[in-house]
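Troubleshooting entry. Yesterday's outputs looked truncated, so today I'm pasting the complete records for two proteins to confirm everything comes through intact. If either block looks cut off, that's the bug. Protein one:
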Amino acid sequence: MNEDFRTEIALVKKDITQLNKVIDKLDTAIEKISEVATSLNRMIAVQESRVDTQETALGQNVEIIHERITQHREEVQLEIDKSHKKIMDELKCLRADQQEHHKQMNERLNKLEQWRWTIIGGALVLGFLASHLPWKEIF
C-alpha cells in the first residue's frame, strides 16, 4: 500500500508539474494578450485622433469651397450684369441708328417721289402743249 501511495503521489506531483507548466503558458499568453490589447487601444486612439483631425480639415475645406463658390457666383453675376448692360446699350444705339437711317431713307424717297411727280406734271404740260400746237403751221 505504501507503494501505491508513493506512485499516486508521484503521479500527482507529475500532474502538478504539468499543470504548473500549463499555468505558466497561460500566464504568458495572458500577458501577450494584454500587451496586444494595450497596443490595439493605443492604435485605436491614434486612429481616432487622425479621424478627428481629418474631419476638422474636411469641415474647413468644405467651408473654403463654399466661400469660393459664393465668391465665384458673385463674380459671374457681376460679369453677367455688365455684359447685359453693355448689350442693352448697344441695342439702344443700334435702334437709334436704325431710326436715323429709316428717317433718311424716307426723306430721300419723298424727294424722289416729288421729282417723279414734277417730271410727270412737266411731261403732261408738254404733252398738252404739243397736242394743241398747230404743227402744220409751224413747219
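Protein two, checking that the full record survives here as well:
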Amino acid sequence: MFHFFKKQKKEPRNLKEILEQFKVLQDSFDKFSLEFENFKKEYQFSVQKIGMVRFNPFSEVGGDQSFSIALLDGKDDGLVMTSFYTKEGNRVYGKPIKNGKSQYALSQEEIKAITTARKNSKRYDEESKHNNQAS
C-alpha cells in the first residue's frame, strides 16, 4: 500500500560494494557524532530546569495568586521571576541566577522555586536512567 515510502535497497554483490557501504555508514556516523556533540554544547545553555511556587503574600485576603518561577540551564544559570498579585495590581520582579544563587536577596518563595527546579532535574535524570536500564 505504501510502497513509495520504502527505499529500494541495492544488495551488495561483492566485497568492494560492502566496503563502499561501510564507508558511507562511517561518514554518516561521523557527521551525526559531530552534530550530536554540537547539540550537547548548545543544550547546556537552554532552559532545562523549571520550578514554580504559588503563594499568598497577604494571608488576610485573596488566594495563591502570586508566584515565583525559576528557569535554569544545565549550569544552574538563569532567572527567577516573582509576581505579586494585589487588589491594586500586579508587580513582577526578575532576578538573575548564577550557579543557583543570586547577587540579589531572594525571598523564601524564590529560594523554594530554585530548589524545586534543581530537584525536578535530578528526579528526571534518575527516571531517565531507570527507564533506559529497563529497556
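Both blocks look complete. Sanity check on protein two: The mean pLDDT is 84.
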